[in-house]
Write a structure and sequence with these properties.
seven-stranded mixed sheet; single chain; 9 strands; 11 helices; Biotin-independent malonate decarboxylase subunit gamma; 45% helix; alpha/beta; 23% strand
Protein backbone atom coordinates (compact mmCIF):
# COMPACT_ATOMS: atom_id res chain seq x y z
CA UNK A 1 0.00 0.00 0.00
CA UNK A 2 1.54 3.32 -1.09
CA UNK A 3 1.89 6.26 1.27
CA UNK A 4 -0.56 8.38 -0.75
CA UNK A 5 -3.18 5.60 -0.53
CA UNK A 6 -2.59 5.23 3.21
CA UNK A 7 -3.04 8.95 3.84
CA UNK A 8 -6.18 9.01 1.68
CA UNK A 9 -7.70 6.11 3.61
CA UNK A 10 -6.69 7.57 6.98
CA UNK A 11 -7.87 11.09 6.24
CA UNK A 12 -10.75 11.02 3.73
CA UNK A 13 -11.51 14.63 4.59
CA UNK A 14 -8.04 15.73 3.58
CA UNK A 15 -4.73 16.33 5.28
CA UNK A 16 -1.69 18.58 5.36
CA UNK A 17 0.97 15.87 5.45
CA UNK A 18 4.10 16.40 3.38
CA UNK A 19 7.26 14.43 2.68
CA UNK A 20 10.58 16.29 2.63
CA UNK A 21 13.81 14.36 2.13
CA UNK A 22 11.87 11.18 2.98
CA UNK A 23 10.74 12.59 6.34
CA UNK A 24 6.99 12.78 6.91
CA UNK A 25 5.32 15.58 8.87
CA UNK A 26 1.94 17.21 9.06
CA UNK A 27 -1.60 17.05 10.38
CA UNK A 28 -4.68 15.09 9.43
CA UNK A 29 -8.24 15.15 10.70
CA UNK A 30 -10.30 12.07 11.38
CA UNK A 31 -13.56 13.79 12.23
CA UNK A 32 -13.43 15.26 14.80
CA UNK A 33 -9.99 14.17 15.97
CA UNK A 34 -6.81 16.04 15.04
CA UNK A 35 -3.91 13.68 14.40
CA UNK A 36 -0.24 14.69 14.25
CA UNK A 37 1.72 12.71 11.68
CA UNK A 38 5.47 12.15 11.48
CA UNK A 39 7.54 9.36 9.97
CA UNK A 40 9.99 8.02 7.42
CA UNK A 41 9.26 7.20 3.78
CA UNK A 42 10.97 5.65 0.80
CA UNK A 43 12.82 2.87 2.64
CA UNK A 44 15.40 5.49 3.60
CA UNK A 45 17.98 5.20 6.34
CA UNK A 46 17.51 7.26 9.51
CA UNK A 47 20.43 9.65 10.00
CA UNK A 48 21.36 11.96 12.87
CA UNK A 49 19.76 14.83 10.98
CA UNK A 50 16.55 12.91 10.35
CA UNK A 51 16.27 11.67 13.93
CA UNK A 52 16.73 15.18 15.32
CA UNK A 53 14.19 16.66 12.89
CA UNK A 54 11.58 14.05 13.88
CA UNK A 55 12.39 14.51 17.58
CA UNK A 56 11.95 18.26 17.11
CA UNK A 57 8.49 17.70 15.64
CA UNK A 58 7.51 15.54 18.63
CA UNK A 59 8.79 18.07 21.17
CA UNK A 60 6.93 20.87 19.38
CA UNK A 61 3.72 18.82 19.56
CA UNK A 62 4.23 18.16 23.28
CA UNK A 63 4.92 21.85 23.94
CA UNK A 64 1.65 22.67 22.17
CA UNK A 65 -0.20 21.47 25.24
CA UNK A 66 -2.84 19.28 23.59
CA UNK A 67 -3.12 15.52 23.95
CA UNK A 68 -3.79 14.81 20.28
CA UNK A 69 -2.56 11.42 19.08
CA UNK A 70 0.71 11.12 17.18
CA UNK A 71 0.80 8.73 14.24
CA UNK A 72 4.28 7.54 13.18
CA UNK A 73 4.36 6.17 9.61
CA UNK A 74 7.38 3.95 8.93
CA UNK A 75 8.95 2.70 5.73
CA UNK A 76 12.70 2.80 6.32
CA UNK A 77 15.85 0.73 6.03
CA UNK A 78 18.10 0.81 9.10
CA UNK A 79 20.00 3.63 10.75
CA UNK A 80 22.38 5.63 8.53
CA UNK A 81 25.63 3.67 8.56
CA UNK A 82 28.24 6.29 7.85
CA UNK A 83 31.38 7.51 9.59
CA UNK A 84 29.91 11.02 9.71
CA UNK A 85 26.78 9.91 11.57
CA UNK A 86 28.72 7.70 13.96
CA UNK A 87 31.04 10.61 14.83
CA UNK A 88 28.04 12.90 15.34
CA UNK A 89 26.60 10.49 17.91
CA UNK A 90 24.06 8.49 15.94
CA UNK A 91 23.09 6.23 18.83
CA UNK A 92 22.43 9.27 21.06
CA UNK A 93 20.30 10.89 18.34
CA UNK A 94 18.23 7.73 17.89
CA UNK A 95 17.83 7.41 21.66
CA UNK A 96 16.74 11.06 21.82
CA UNK A 97 14.02 10.42 19.24
CA UNK A 98 12.80 7.34 21.12
CA UNK A 99 12.70 9.28 24.38
CA UNK A 100 10.66 12.11 22.85
CA UNK A 101 8.02 9.57 21.80
CA UNK A 102 8.04 8.08 25.30
CA UNK A 103 7.71 11.60 26.73
CA UNK A 104 4.74 12.31 24.47
CA UNK A 105 3.02 9.12 25.67
CA UNK A 106 3.62 10.10 29.31
CA UNK A 107 2.20 13.58 28.62
CA UNK A 108 -1.08 12.07 27.41
CA UNK A 109 -0.56 11.66 23.65
CA UNK A 110 -1.37 8.25 22.24
CA UNK A 111 1.62 7.37 20.07
CA UNK A 112 0.74 4.88 17.35
CA UNK A 113 3.20 3.47 14.86
CA UNK A 114 1.98 2.24 11.48
CA UNK A 115 4.57 0.09 9.72
CA UNK A 116 3.77 0.02 6.01
CA UNK A 117 7.13 -0.98 4.54
CA UNK A 118 10.50 -2.03 5.78
CA UNK A 119 12.36 -1.07 8.93
CA UNK A 120 15.33 -2.50 10.75
CA UNK A 121 17.81 -2.07 13.57
CA UNK A 122 18.17 1.40 15.10
CA UNK A 123 15.59 3.01 12.84
CA UNK A 124 13.02 0.38 13.83
CA UNK A 125 13.79 0.66 17.55
CA UNK A 126 13.79 4.48 17.64
CA UNK A 127 10.49 4.85 15.79
CA UNK A 128 8.18 1.83 15.57
CA UNK A 129 9.17 0.13 18.83
CA UNK A 130 9.23 3.46 20.70
CA UNK A 131 5.54 4.12 20.08
CA UNK A 132 2.96 3.06 22.64
CA UNK A 133 1.15 0.88 20.11
CA UNK A 134 2.48 -0.55 16.87
CA UNK A 135 0.31 -1.83 14.03
CA UNK A 136 1.26 -2.86 10.52
CA UNK A 137 -0.07 -3.40 7.05
CA UNK A 138 0.35 -6.68 5.12
CA UNK A 139 3.63 -6.71 3.25
CA UNK A 140 5.55 -4.84 5.94
CA UNK A 141 8.90 -6.42 6.70
CA UNK A 142 10.38 -5.41 10.06
CA UNK A 143 13.60 -6.75 11.57
CA UNK A 144 15.35 -5.82 14.77
CA UNK A 145 18.44 -7.26 13.07
CA UNK A 146 18.65 -9.33 9.91
CA UNK A 147 20.27 -12.73 10.21
CA UNK A 148 23.47 -11.94 8.24
CA UNK A 149 24.11 -8.95 10.53
CA UNK A 150 23.30 -11.04 13.58
CA UNK A 151 25.80 -13.65 12.42
CA UNK A 152 28.53 -11.00 12.14
CA UNK A 153 27.79 -9.66 15.64
CA UNK A 154 27.35 -12.98 17.45
CA UNK A 155 30.02 -14.88 15.42
CA UNK A 156 27.53 -17.73 15.14
CA UNK A 157 27.17 -19.49 11.77
CA UNK A 158 24.17 -18.19 9.88
CA UNK A 159 22.88 -21.77 9.52
CA UNK A 160 22.63 -21.95 13.33
CA UNK A 161 20.70 -18.67 13.41
CA UNK A 162 18.36 -19.82 10.64
CA UNK A 163 17.59 -22.96 12.66
CA UNK A 164 16.90 -20.90 15.79
CA UNK A 165 14.76 -18.46 13.79
CA UNK A 166 12.51 -21.31 12.67
CA UNK A 167 11.74 -22.17 16.31
CA UNK A 168 12.02 -18.81 18.12
CA UNK A 169 10.25 -15.70 16.78
CA UNK A 170 12.52 -13.43 18.85
CA UNK A 171 15.42 -14.46 16.60
CA UNK A 172 13.54 -14.10 13.38
CA UNK A 173 12.77 -11.07 11.21
CA UNK A 174 9.44 -10.61 9.48
CA UNK A 175 5.93 -9.41 10.21
CA UNK A 176 4.53 -12.72 11.48
CA UNK A 177 7.41 -13.26 13.90
CA UNK A 178 7.26 -9.73 15.32
CA UNK A 179 3.49 -10.11 15.75
CA UNK A 180 4.03 -13.36 17.66
CA UNK A 181 6.34 -11.58 20.11
CA UNK A 182 3.60 -9.03 20.80
CA UNK A 183 5.59 -6.13 19.36
CA UNK A 184 2.90 -5.61 16.72
CA UNK A 185 -0.60 -5.24 18.18
CA UNK A 186 -2.49 -5.95 14.97
CA UNK A 187 -2.20 -6.17 11.21
CA UNK A 188 -4.75 -3.85 9.66
CA UNK A 189 -6.90 -4.77 6.69
CA UNK A 190 -6.02 -2.51 3.74
CA UNK A 191 -9.39 -3.25 2.13
CA UNK A 192 -11.19 -1.58 5.03
CA UNK A 193 -11.11 2.06 6.07
CA UNK A 194 -7.84 2.82 7.86
CA UNK A 195 -9.57 5.76 9.54
CA UNK A 196 -12.12 3.42 11.15
CA UNK A 197 -9.38 1.01 12.25
CA UNK A 198 -7.42 3.94 13.69
CA UNK A 199 -10.44 5.20 15.64
CA UNK A 200 -11.15 1.67 16.92
CA UNK A 201 -7.58 1.50 18.19
CA UNK A 202 -7.95 4.85 19.95
CA UNK A 203 -11.07 3.51 21.68
CA UNK A 204 -8.97 0.75 23.23
CA UNK A 205 -7.59 1.76 26.58
CA UNK A 206 -4.01 3.00 26.48
CA UNK A 207 -1.60 3.19 29.37
CA UNK A 208 -0.21 -0.16 30.48
CA UNK A 209 2.16 -1.78 28.01
CA UNK A 210 0.63 -5.15 27.10
CA UNK A 211 3.22 -6.32 24.58
CA UNK A 212 4.65 -8.91 26.97
CA UNK A 213 1.18 -10.38 27.57
CA UNK A 214 0.43 -10.44 23.86
CA UNK A 215 3.71 -12.25 23.27
CA UNK A 216 2.79 -14.78 25.94
CA UNK A 217 -0.71 -15.41 24.56
CA UNK A 218 0.62 -15.76 21.00
CA UNK A 219 3.39 -18.14 22.04
CA UNK A 220 6.20 -15.97 20.69
CA UNK A 221 7.60 -14.67 23.97
CA UNK A 222 6.47 -16.99 26.76
CA UNK A 223 8.69 -15.70 29.60
CA UNK A 224 8.63 -11.89 29.39
CA UNK A 225 5.25 -11.29 31.10
CA UNK A 226 5.92 -13.56 34.09
CA UNK A 227 9.44 -12.17 34.57
CA UNK A 228 8.17 -8.56 34.39
CA UNK A 229 5.45 -9.40 36.91
CA UNK A 230 8.00 -10.96 39.26
CA UNK A 231 10.33 -7.94 38.97
CA UNK A 232 7.41 -5.61 39.70
CA UNK A 233 6.48 -7.56 42.82
CA UNK A 234 10.06 -7.69 44.07
CA UNK A 235 10.48 -3.95 43.44
CA UNK A 236 7.31 -3.17 45.42
CA UNK A 237 8.83 -4.91 48.46
CA UNK A 238 12.00 -2.81 48.37
Amino acid sequence: MKLADILASLFPGGHEVTVTDNLIAGIGIINPIKVHVIGIAGQSALSCDGALILAGHVLEIVRGGSTAPILVLIDSSSQQMSRRDELLGLSECLAHLAKTLLLAEVRGHRTIGLLYGGSAAGAFIATALATGTLVALPGAYPAVMDLPSMARVTKLPIEVLKTKAEKTPVFAPGLDNLAQTGAIRAVWNPDQSLAEQFLALLDEQGGRDVRDRLGESRGGRPKAASIAERVEKEASRA
